[in-house]
C-alpha cells in the first residue's frame, strides 16, 4: 500500500511540475502598475514644485515595474521602452492641465544580460481625477517586446501600463 501511495505521489508531483514548464516559451515577464497615495516626505518634495496651498491628497504616485527574463537560448531580443517624455505628455493630456511633477526610475536592457528591467515612479497632481481615468490615459504608454530563440515560436507583444492580466 505504501508503495502505491508513493508511486501516485511521485506521478502527481511529476505531472504538476511538467504543467509549470512552458516548452518553447523563451521568456517570462511580469508587469505591475499601481496608483498610490504619496508619503509625507514625497509631499514635502512636491511643495517645492507647486504654488498655493495644495493638500497632500491632491497628489498621487504611479509606480510601474516591468521585468523580462529569458534563457541562454535567445538569439534576438528587441525591447522598446516608452519614450522619455511619454509619462509627462500623457498625464498632462488628460484634461490639458500640467499634472506631471516628479519622475524617477531606471532601466536595464543590457544585451549581455538575461534580465530586462524597467521601473518608474511618477508623482502627479490628481485633483479632480479618479484612478480609472488615469489608468485609461496611461494605457497609451507601452513597452514593445520581441524575443526569438532557438526553441519555440518568437514572442512579439506590446505591454500596456495597466494591462489586464
Structure description:
Residues 1-21 form the signal peptide. This is Lipoprotein. Keywords: Signal. By secondary structure, this protein is an alpha+beta fold. It has one domain. Helices cover 25% and strands 39% of the residues. The strands form two sheets. Strands 1-2-5-4 form a four-stranded antiparallel beta sheet, with helices on both faces. A hairpin with a 6-residue loop joins strand 4 (100-108) and strand 5 (115-125). It is elongated. The protein starts with a helix and ends in a 5-residue tail after the last strand. Residues 2-24 have low confidence and may be disordered.
Q: What are the secondary-structure elements, in order, as H or E?
A: HEHEEHEEHEE
Number of helices: 4
* Helical amount: 25-40%
- Quote the average pLDDT: 85
Query: Tell me about the biggest sheet?
Result: 4 strands, antiparallel
Secondary structure tally: strands: 7
Strand order of the largest sheet: 1-2-5-4
Organism: Jeotgalibacillus malaysiensis
Protein name: Lipoprotein
Keywords: Signal
Quick synopsis:
With 165 residues, the protein is of the alpha+beta class. The chain has helices at 2-20, 40-46, 86-93, 131-138, and strands at residues 27-37, 59-70, 74-80, 100-108, 115-125, 142-149, 155-160.
Amino acid at each position: 500500500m505504501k508503495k502505491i501511495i508513493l508511486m501516485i505521489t511521485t506521478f502527481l508531483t511529476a505531472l504538476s511540475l511538467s504543467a509549470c514548464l512552458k516548452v518553447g516559451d523563451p521568456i517570462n515577464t511580469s508587469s505591475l502598475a499601481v496608483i498610490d497615495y504619496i508619503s509625507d516626505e514625497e509631499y514635502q518634495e512636491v511643495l517645492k514644485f507647486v504654488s498655493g496651498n495644495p493638500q497632500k491628497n491632491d497628489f498621487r504616485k504611479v509606480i510601474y515595474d516591468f521585468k523580462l527574463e529569458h534563457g541562454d537560448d535567445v538569439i534576438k531580443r528587441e525591447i522598446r521602452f516608452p519614450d522619455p517624455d511619454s509619462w509627462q505628455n500623457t498625464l498632462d493630456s488628460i484634461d490639458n492641465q500640467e499634472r506631471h511633477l516628479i519622475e524617477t526610475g531606471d532601466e536595464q536592457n543590457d544585451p549581455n544580460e538575461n534580465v530586462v528591467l524597467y521601473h518608474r515612479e511618477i508623482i502627479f497632481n490628481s485633483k479632480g481625477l479618479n484612478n480609472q481615468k488615469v489608468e485609461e490615459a496611461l494605457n497609451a504608454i507601452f513597452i514593445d517586446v520581441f524575443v526569438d530563440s532557438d526553441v519555440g515560436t518568437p514572442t512579439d507583444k506590446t505591454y500596456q501600463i495597466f494591462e489586464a492580466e
